[in-house]
Write a structure and sequence with these properties.
- With 308 residues, the protein is of the alpha+beta class.
- The chain has two domains: 142 residues, Fructose-1,6-Bisphosphatase, Chain A, domain 1 (2-Layer Sandwich), CATH 3.30.540; 125 residues, no CATH class.
- It is built from nine helices and 15 strands.
- The strands form five sheets. The protein has a seven-stranded mixed beta sheet with strand order 3-4-5-6-7-8-9. Strands 1-2 form a two-stranded antiparallel ribbon. The chain has a two-stranded parallel sheet with strand order 10-11.
- The mean pLDDT is 89.
């Protein structure tokens, strides 16, 4: 824990955020209109008023550069270029909810040091809940320490959102070039010991699973060593990222972790379906699951992976 992040420092930062919420955000709740920024996201006068007030109050806590969501790209870059510590501010996290009168929004603030967060707070003003953490010292909700639960949900139970309101042409030329490409040359990734686990719903009506098979085959041709580093699993009856008649719930993350830890690639994963007795093994391509001729056809234990 950084020695200067004392209880007094933390209390002052939390008080600054709380004060801004009570003076700038709550008085404007359900009374302001939203407009769209150039990237398609929403913004209100509360966003700007909150940011201006946070800049003033947080500078009184620690006078370092500021990176705010409503600042220009040039202003943000100037703060990054200074190096060392800086405040990172989302003055109204959940503007869409706020502008529609939905009571789920917050102020999110982090103190960064060389691009690593060392202190952070998410303050939800409707419920007066301050979630905050100090690197190396733990996390709290108001004055109650937060404890990591003994069991956590699986990645399969997570919900993720990708906003399509953004500048899609910029995304295609920027982020998409890094995360959505078909370059089969993953030699650098394989050389570093990387493991790639792919899966695709075989009934996906959008991107065809055949294109994923074609990509796997292109990778194996371009990088022969990848045969020990890449596995593809097809999920029969499953639509795009889930749904459909087939079992679509399986723990790919644990399979990947075991692969990394043991060096042994997964040969299959057991898939289930919510509110259904059906389970099936998902087999590493090109193998498929075949019924062994006896037992309950809803039970994955009565199927085995074999060549098609």
């Amino acid at each position: 824990m950084p020695s200067d992040l004392t209880v007094t420092f933390t209390a002052r930062a939390i008080d600054a955020v709380r004060t801004v919420a009570s003076q700038e955000i709550l008085p404007r709740y359900r009374s302001v209109d939203a407009t769209r920024k150039d990237d398609g996201s929403l913004v209100t006068e509360a966003d700007f008023a909150s940011q201006d007030a946070l800049v003033r109050r947080l500078r009184a806590v620690e006078d370092v550069p500021m990176v705010g969501e409503e600042m220009t790209a040039r202003e943000q870059q100037a703060a990054f270029d200074c190096g060392g510590r800086f405040w990172c501010i989302d003055p109204l996290d959940g503007t869409s909810n706020f502008s529609k009168g939905i009571p789920f929004f917050a102020i999110s603030v982090a103190l960064m040091e060389d691009e690593r967060p060392i202190f952070g707070i998410v303050y939800e003003p409707i419920g007066d809940e301050a979630f905050f953490a100090v690197r190396g010292a733990g996390a709290w909700l108001n004055h109650r320490p937060l404890v990591v639960p003994s069991s956590t949900p699986t990645l399969a139970d997570a919900i993720a959102e990708v906003s399509l309101r953004r500048d899609m042409s910029a995304l295609r030329s920027g982020v998409a070039l890094q995360v959505h490409q078909e370059n089969p040359d993953i030699s650098a990734f394989v050389k570093r010991g990387g493991k790639l686990l792919l899966w695709h719903g075989f009934n996906d009506p959008g991107p065809s699973p055949l294109s994923t098979i074609a990509y796997l085959e292109a990778v194996q041709k371009a990088v022969p060593a990848s045969k020990e580093s890449v596995r593809l699993f097809l999920a029969p009856g499953v639509l795009h990222c889930g749904g459909g008649a087939g079992p679509d719930r399986f723990d790919a993350l644990t399979a990947l972790e075991r692969w990394v830890d043991t060096g042994t690639p997964p040969a299959s994963m057991i898939a289930t379906k919510a509110n259904s007795p059906v389970s099936r093994p998902l087999c590493a391509y090109p193998q498929v699951a075949r019924y062994n001729g006896s037992g309950d056809t809803n039970d994955a234990a009565n199927f085995a992976c074999s060549a098609p």
